[in-house]
């Protein structure tokens, strides 16, 4: 498993800076060195920073962009990373600047000058997020630069270390989600997934694992129908963080399909390998719970994940089968590839029966249709309560995680009517496929439970890198949910 890099916060020391190996990152104003540390560094480099800032390259660079000066005279460092800095830059811009630093610094030693910098803790978070790598399955590269030391120097290093503390918890939660989402399905089986969650008991989370016989006793016929074609046992894992008083918890529910072949309604071969990420909802719930525990959040939150594998076999659910959910509604399984909603239906019902939550948010890589609608920039947000939805949208915006409200309405229910059961698991056509999926889920939300459904099929994993993540799993949602908890449930 990967780790987020440790960042040391040290007092600014000009001598140590001139002796620093690897890379040194310095923030420069649009017109050149505009802080005491930048001017000192410029002097040590014989005015190289001033010369850089008077050139075309710098003039054309966008704020947050980095121009590298290789093997600078006057320093021990291999390179200086000059970050073009707009003094007005907000939190998220500084986070992205941290991401840019981590990307161009690579693996070696890195010293970042942060004296006098606003939102320096955001720079540290951006560095930690962008430094993430998933190389668990590569043989070690002997020629690669050895893992270096990351230092942030500032006058007020103690205050900065304090401000960065909760950020480290967030970065670790995001990395945990990314590891889970990146992991292939032969490694991240339902058993392996549950074991990784159980290990979080060390952090003070209560973790309970419900096995197939428990799930059968509870009547979770919908969830069990999805996993019955697989040799891996289906499970529900419950993670409780009790950092608040005795108030009802917020419930987070995640779709954890460790691999989605489609089942008997088999998916085409092309791109099927991407379905290792079909546990992204569960991964985000797990990473959020990890972040909350690491920063000892003062709130009650319960995370529940349904872990199953959707495989075709002689024992698999057939199209046309009718299954009974824990709620009691029967479902005609028209398409075994619409399996996520069957899993969520039972876990959501159990969450409400067991914990009487004050609110419930489910996350799922649920539909290809949400990618058609929103692409990869925004997750779909469906809700039965405007205030709750708006609070989530504000949290997501505050963390730079794209989220867009989608409509719901009873009129969409018509296409879910079954000839022989209480409901079908897919609509009659492909139109509005994400909305009919949300309407299906809504049947399993009890009256009076504020609920949000997040369709993260387009945002959980990307084919291209971004400012804060390499290619692959993004960890989308961990930061938004963490913020929602901080803003709405703590203090
Ligand atoms: N896991 C998929 C949705 C998905 C698609 C996630 C692409 C990530 C990327 C889901 O289980 C699924 O197969 N949905 C079907 C539903 C259809 C059968 C109604 C879909 O979107 O095609
Ligand atoms: Mn599917
Ligand atoms: Zn799926």
Explain what you see:
The protein has 491 residues and is of the alpha/beta class. It folds into two domains: 7-154, Leucine Aminopeptidase, subunit E, domain 1; 170-489, Zn peptidases (Aminopeptidase, 3-Layer(aba) Sandwich), CATH 3.40.630.10. The chain has helices spanning 14-19, 36-44, 48-53, 56-60, 91-105, 120-130, 157-182, 190-198, 212-218, 221-227, 280-294, 340-355, 369-374, 386-398, 433-442, 478-488, and strands at 7-11, 23-29, 66-70, 79-85, 110-113, 150-154, 206-210, 235-242, 250-260, 300-310, 322-324, 330-332, 359-364, 379-383, 403-405, 423-424, 451-455, 461-462, 472-473. The chain has an eight-stranded mixed sheet with strand order 7-8-10-9-13-17-14-15, with helices on both faces. Strands 1-6-5-2-4-3 form a six-stranded mixed sheet. The chain has a three-stranded mixed sheet with strand order 11-12-16. Helix 14 (386-398) crosses helix 16. Manganese (II) ion (MN) binds at residues 260, 262, 337, 339. Zinc ion is lined by residues 257, 260, 278, 339-340.
Q: Classify the beta-strand content into a percent band.
A: 15-25%
Output the CATH class name of the largest domain. Answer: Alpha Beta
**For the record, what is the CATH homologous superfamily label of the largest domain?**
Zn peptidases
Query: Which hetero ligands occur in this complex?
Result: ligand BES, manganese (II) ion, zinc ion
């Amino acid at each position: 498993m990967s780790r987020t890099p440790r960042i040391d916060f040290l007092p600014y020391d000009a001598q140590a800076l001139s002796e620093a190996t690897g890379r040194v990152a310095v923030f420069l104003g649009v017109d050149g060195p505009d802080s005491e540390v930048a001017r000192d560094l410029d002097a040590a480099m014989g005015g190289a920073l001033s010369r850089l800032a008077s050139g075309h390259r710098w003039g054309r660079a966008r704020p947050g962009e980095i121009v590298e000066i290789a093997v600078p005279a006057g320093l021990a460092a291999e390179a200086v990373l000059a970050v073009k800095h707009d003094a007005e830059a907000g939190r998220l811009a500084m986070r992205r600047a941290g991401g840019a630093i981590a990307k161009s610094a690579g693996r070696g030693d890195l010293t970042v000058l942060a004296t006098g910098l606003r939102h320096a803790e955001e720079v540290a978070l951006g560095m930690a997020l962008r430094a993430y790598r998933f190389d668990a399955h590569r043989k070690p590269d002997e020629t690669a630069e050895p893992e270096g030391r990351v230092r942030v120097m500032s006058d007020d290093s103690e205050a900065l270390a304090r401000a960065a503390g909760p950020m480290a918890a967030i970065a670790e939660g995001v990395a945990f989600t990314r590891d889970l989402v990146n992991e292939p399905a032969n490694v991240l089986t339902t058993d392996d997934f549950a074991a990784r969650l159980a290990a979080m008991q060390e952090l003070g989370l209560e973790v309970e694992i419900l096995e197939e016989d428990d799930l059968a006793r509870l009547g979770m016929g919908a969830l069990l129908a999805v996993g019955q074609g697989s040799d891996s046992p289906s499970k529900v894992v419950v993670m409780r963080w009790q950092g608040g008083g005795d108030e009802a918890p917020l419930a987070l529910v995640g779709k954890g399909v460790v691999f989605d072949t489609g089942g008997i309604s088999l998916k085409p071969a092309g791109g099927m390998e991407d379905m290792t990420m079909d546990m992204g909802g569960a991964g985000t719930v797990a990473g959020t719970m990890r972040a909350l525990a690491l920063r000892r959040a003062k709130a009650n939150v319960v995370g529940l994940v349904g872990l199953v594998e959707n495989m075709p076999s002689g024992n698999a659910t057939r199209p046309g089968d009718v299954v009974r959910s824990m709620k009691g509604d029967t479902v005609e399984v028209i398409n075994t590839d619409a399996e996520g909603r069957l899993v969520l239906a039972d876990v959501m019902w159990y969450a409400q029966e067991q914990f009487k939550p004050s609110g419930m948010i489910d996350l799922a890589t649920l539909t290809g249709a949400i990618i058609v609608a929103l692409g990869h920039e925004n997750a779909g947000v469906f809700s039965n309560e405007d205030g709750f939805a708006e609070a989530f949208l504000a949290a997501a915006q505050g963390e730079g995680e794209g989220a867009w409200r989608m409509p719901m309405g009873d009129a969409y229910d018509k296409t879910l009517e079954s000839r022989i059961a209480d409901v079908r698991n897919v609509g009659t056509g492909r139109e509005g496929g994400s909305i009919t999926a949300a309407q299906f889920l809504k049947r399993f939300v009890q009256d009076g439970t504020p609920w949000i459904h997040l369709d993260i099929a387009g945002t959980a994993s990307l084919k291209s890198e971004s400012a804060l993540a390499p290619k692959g799993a993004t960890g989308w949602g961990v930061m938004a949910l963490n913020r929602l908890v901080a803003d709405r449930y703590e203090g």
